[in-house]
Design goal:
Elements: H1 17-25, H2 28-61, H3 63-66, E1 69-71, E2 74-75, H4 76-119
Antiparallel strand pairs: 1-2
Helix pairs in contact: 2-4
């Protein structure tokens, strides 16, 4: 049984792929990639949450507006709920597009740099 404050693991020096990962994760290019991803993802997540919670808040605080019939039995709340699928798809499409143009090219550049160092 371990005494209080003792750990069941020991700190080891990185080796092989661990050392390579440490080098990559500390590189400026990788940090730039993480900043670029955060620059896209944080606003996208905030927008998605705001859009998602707008429906229940609107139904709760503005029931007369959300209950307005658009056509037949379909009211504004139903259309808003349906629109959330399209907004989610749009955000996913935008992420895939940005990732394909920016993030993936940066990842390939990082991988080429690592491969170039390995061949030296």
């Amino acid at each position: 049984m371990a005494a209080a404050g003792e750990t069941h693991w020991e700190l080891k020096q990185p080796r092989g792929n661990d050392a390579r990962w440490a080098e990559i994760s500390e590189s400026e290019e990788f940090r730039g990639l993480m900043r670029a991803k955060a620059k896209f993802l944080i606003p996208a997540i905030i927008f998605s949450f705001a859009y998602y919670f707008a429906l229940p808040l609107s139904v709760g605080y503005f029931p007369n507006i959300m209950n307005k019939k658009i056509f037949g039995p379909i009211n504004l709340a139903y259309l808003f709920a349906l629109s959330q699928f399209f907004v989610a798809w749009a955000v996913a499409f935008l992420y895939a597009r940005v990732a394909g143009k920016k993030f993936d090219t940066t990842v390939e550049r990082i991988k080429e740099n690592v491969r170039g160092r390995d061949s030296e």
